[in-house]
Amino acid sequence: MLGILAMWLLASVVHANTPLTGAAREVRPGDTPQSVLDAFHRGDLASFDPNLLQRFPPQGLGTWVVLQPQPPLVDEERVLSIYPPPTTTVTLIAGDGASSPLSMEDFSTAAHGNGRLAFRIRAGVPASDPILLRFEPTALRSSPVSFQLQSWDEFLRHDARWLVFASACFAVMLAMSLMALCLALMLRDATFAWYAGYVLCYALIQGVQTGFLFHPLEITWLAGSADMVGSSAVAVSLAFAAMFVARFCELPRYAPWLHTPTLALAVGMPLVVLLRICQIGLLQETAQVLLGPLMVIGTLLVLLAGVMSAVRGARAAWFFLAGWTPLLALTTLSHSQFDGSLADVIWLGDAGLAVGAFSAVVLSLGLADRALIMRRDHSIVQELADNDALTNVLNRRAWSDSVRKVLNSGSGQPVALLFLDLDHFKMLNDRQGHAAGDRALVAVADALRHELRPHDLLGRYGGEEFVAMLFGIEQVQAMQVATRLCRRVHRLEIPVNDSGLLLTVSIGIAMRLPDDTIEALVERSDHAMYRAKLAGRNRARLEEKLEPLVRRQWPRAVDNDGNA
Predict the structure, then answer these.
(1) Contact between 87 and 142 (Cβ < 8 Å)
(2) Cis ω for the linkage preceding 72 (within 30 of 0)
(3) 252 and 309 fall within a common domain
(4) Which of 16, 112, 121, 174 has its CA 20 to 30 A from that of 73?
């Protein structure tokens, strides 16, 4: 962004231009180029400063403009530039009477300025000769223009700098809008789509106003419809801005009384555009009358919505105001220029590009912040849904889903399932109450979590039962881990009754077999846990088929004395 602003400053530097004086008057019937030049030499034309913005009346037959180069004069090839590019055709009339009409919609001229009208004046033309121009009348609102007379080399350098600057600004706006569209699809959040629409509309407006869509892009189908496209883009951009601020600034929460008017604005502006482009004259005139007031009211409404949301605590509203307020200020200044103010601020047109890129970046940062908040909230909701509310370990559903993914992954690493059941827990609840039982469950879950590895899956299966899935360990290691868990719980020294009985845990261990299911694993480890309880509790047991064979001591049917 700093690079774009730096390029803008370079493009706006005052170059070594040939000094000019200017004079103008309206075209009258019977005027000839020579009669106009004679009137200029007599001083009959109204003088103006070509370096300042000057607005020529669009009505009547047009306007004559005479520019007089001032010393120092150099006989070389020069270029006369008109900036910003006017919406009408301008004709350069040479001393021999030859005329060269030019407009932004003229795609046949080889040496056409980018972002301005540019006339080449050959080296053979005396440097002191006045330059005669004729501005044709137009039904559109004419924008104020300024004039520059530069050498050919200086014009090329200036033109290249402007082209790099404008291309960078449009590239930023396009990149930010494409990123937003991708996020809209990924996150299924229309807020990003409304932002993308707004930025693209603003880029279209600037492309028409600066002439970038005509030169260098040469989008020929815009010829004759630039005004319609530009004004429609302005109305639609306000509709996108209204939808964007309604969702981005959370108007239903922070400014509910502005939510309905904002949505009405978002619906109304496209309707005005449809009326304006229809073929019914009365509807077109009605839309033209409504467009201006609706733009003013809508802009103030969107600004008020952003301010109220920010004041009432909407974090995103501050991003919106930081990105949108400079555009609003610049638009206000541009409208002031149309009314004759700020004639010396000729850089507002280029500033619109720079501020547009700045706004796109700031609002993108706001959208990134929104995406991070959405991701954090989603993680919190997911954690609340997956974790047991009491012990903060995985609940039965989440644990089963996680284990099922492991079993279906096709990994060949050994897996051990531990089924844990607290000993004498019912007695603890009966003697000390459920609050003491809850505290015991929390303490046991915390001890188990700290004893296991971070990637082992620990969950509460139900009541006083826990399950743990251990990855990458054989049965000998699984038995060592289970024994360590028994000792850890015993060291908690949670009393069950007044006689010194402590809370302990019995653990059953099952090892995964090929094509094993989670239900089969849990069933085998549960049976192994019951064997641990029958063996005296506070211990671990492998599933029966995994334990080494030992010779069983069968009771004698008859003792040594022969007694039954």
Answers:
(1) yes
(2) yes
(3) yes
(4) 112
